[in-house]
Amino acid sequence: MKLARLASAALLLGALPLTAQNHPETFILSGSSIQMLTGTGTVTTLINNPGSAHGVAMDVDNKNVLFGVTATNTTVPAIGLFSLDPNTGTYTTVVTDTALSAEVTEVIVDGQGDYIVGGEGATGYGVYRVRGGSVIGTIFTTLASGVTGSVTGGLIQDIDDGDFVLQLFGGSGPHALIKVAADGGAVTSILALPNGPRYDFAQSYATGNYLVGANDSSVGILYEVTKAGGVTTATTLTNRFAFNVPTADRQSAAAPRLIHPYIGDIHYTDMSTFTVTSVAVSGSSVSPRGMTVYQSRNIQPVRTGAGTWTIRYSFPGDAGKGLLSCASLLGVRPGVTLADGRTIRFNFDGLAYVSLAGAAAPYFTGSPTFLDGSGEATGGIDVTSLPTGLDFVIHIIAVVVDGAAPLGVGAIADPVVLRITT
Questions:
Q1: Rounded distance, CA 205 to CA 399, Å?
Q2: Do 291 and 30 contact (CB within 8 A), yes or no?
Q3: Measured torsion, CA atoms of residues 164, 169, 175, 180, in degrees rounded to the nearest 10
Q4: Each residue of 299-348: pLDDT tens digit?
Q5: Which domain holds residue 263?
Q6: Residue 166: how many CA atoms within 13 Å on its side-chain side?
Q7: Which residues partner with 260 through β-bridges?
Q8: How many CA atoms, within 13 angstroms, populate the side-chain half-sphere of residue 49?
Q9: Which residues contact 406 (CB under 8 A, 6 or more apart)?
Q10: Which residues pair with 126 in a beta bridge?
Q11: CA–CA distance, 218 with 114 (Å, rounded to integer)
């Protein structure tokens, strides 16, 4: 009830100053080197010349950075998936495997806390589930599905149903955008793009549409693609590589935006109007093949056993503040729009109310009310007492309680999708 009351109060009050709506502007870029770039142009090289680094994502702990390698040299003498500590510049090996022996091109962390890794190995291109330092399952291969292309154009988990969406690079074309069931059981074609995709794409939580970067012989292109396969050109830029890595900032913001740096510039694209603002920065020398917003993993479920998950909450700038969290069965749209323009991307239902009130035990347990001195907290989900044969999706949301923020609503996490089967 507490979060719903905050939302209701927001609807009744007048416009207030925006606060804490976007993530702090620190970005991790991967390519010929791995660099940390701030919105003011400060550059820190974390690994120089790691070979060819592609996919990059915040690790489960929201501290280390995952990166994949597609070619090796003496800096990173292996092809595989690695976890980098940005504070020390040291990295550890997550996995090297014959399935990924030629290159690791994409990595995300899914709602189970598993690494979903795209790359090329002994049987061609595929997407694999990595847990505990091992490849534990094959989700998709181009060979088995009969789809042509390399897994180099981006990989996301769809916020609505938890399935995976891949943009394949098909050489001279066409380039298939496909949806793959989370269990690998079905592959659905969305559309084939006429122009070459870049390395990443994003999803708008406000619309559910995919925002895909591409280029032709003269311009960089941002496509907006519906789930039914409708496509429009959202905007273009004269730099052909300006949409290499379109990455969504916090989607609760009053004006959600994409961030897509390229050498010498940071571009910001409004996800509704597709107006582009470009900021010139010096010092960044990376032509990015991957990007993530540093410490942006505010919520992360981690599977601990059959039917059980730990939920990790991480808000590094909000140590000691209050935290409200809950789960819902009703999805993320339209959500609740606050008076200052921000939107809680979450629909309230009975599960949300009882989980927020701490009355959803034994299913939603240990709901935290405060962040610790590091801005972290943990909760849990346990569905082992549910009947077998169920298959459903829930969404988890969290809001920081901050007396200095409008309406007492501080940082609003993006929702996380968790598919539960019993």
A1: 17
A2: yes
A3: -20
A4: 999 999 999 999 999 999 999 999 999 999 999 999 999 999 999 999 99
A5: 26-293
A6: 35
A7: 267
A8: 3
A9: 10, 16, 17, 18, 19, 338, 339, 340
A10: 119, 141
A11: 39
Rounded to whole angstroms, the Cα distance separating 62 from 212 reads 25
* CA distance to 78, 109, 124, 328, 391, per residue, from 101 (Å): 9, 20, 10, 40, 34
Q: For residue 158, give every residue at least 6 positions away whose Cβ sits within 8 Å of its Cβ, in sequence order, or none.
A: 164, 165, 179, 203, 417
Q: State which of 242, 276, 293 marks the end of a domain.
A: 293
Peptide bond into 50 cis (omega under 30): no
Task: Tell me how crowded residue 188 is: count the other CB atoms within 10 A of its CB.
Answer: 12
**Tokens representing residue 8 in the block:** 């209701």
Q: Are residues 165 and 204 both part of a single domain?
A: yes
Residue whose entry in the numeric block shows the structure tokens 């390229």: 262
- In angstroms, the CA 297 to CA 318 distance is 14
pLDDT of 85? 98
Cβ atoms within 10 A of the Cβ of 1, count? 14
Strand order in the sheet with 81-85: 53-58, 65-69, 81-85, 90-95
Residue 352 sits at φ, ψ, to 5 deg, of: -60, -45
pLDDT grade, residue 74 (50/70/90)? low
Q: Residue 21 falls within a domain, yes or no?
A: no
Find all residues with CB under 8 Å of 374, minimum gap 6, and list them: 316, 319
The burial of 4, by beta-carbon neighbours within 10 Å (0-12 exposed, 13-18 middle, 19 or more buried), is given as: middle
Q: What single string gives the DSSP state of each residue in 200-220? A: EEEE-TTT--EEEEEE-SS-E
> Closest Cα partner for 351 from 367, 337, 338, 339?
367
Burial class (CB in 10 A: 0-12, 13-18, 19+), 271: buried
Indicate whether 213 and 272 sit together in one domain: yes
Contact 309/301 with Cβ under 8 angstroms?
yes
Contacts of residue 25, defined as CB under 8 A and 6 or more positions apart, other chains included, come to 38, 39, 40
246 and 344 both lie in a single domain: no
- Number of domains the chain is built from: 2
Joined tokens for residue 312 = 């990790």
Nearest to 61 by CA among 332, 356, 376: 376
> Would you call 406 helix, strand, or coil by DSSP?
helix
Predicted confidence (pLDDT) per residue in 392-401, tens digit: 999 999 999 9
Residue in the block written with tokens 């010498």: 264
Do residues 70 and 38 share a domain? yes
Count of positions (residues) in the chain: 422
Same domain, 100 and 220: yes
Task: Report the sign of the C-alpha dihedral through residues 93, 99, 101, 106, in that order.
Answer: negative
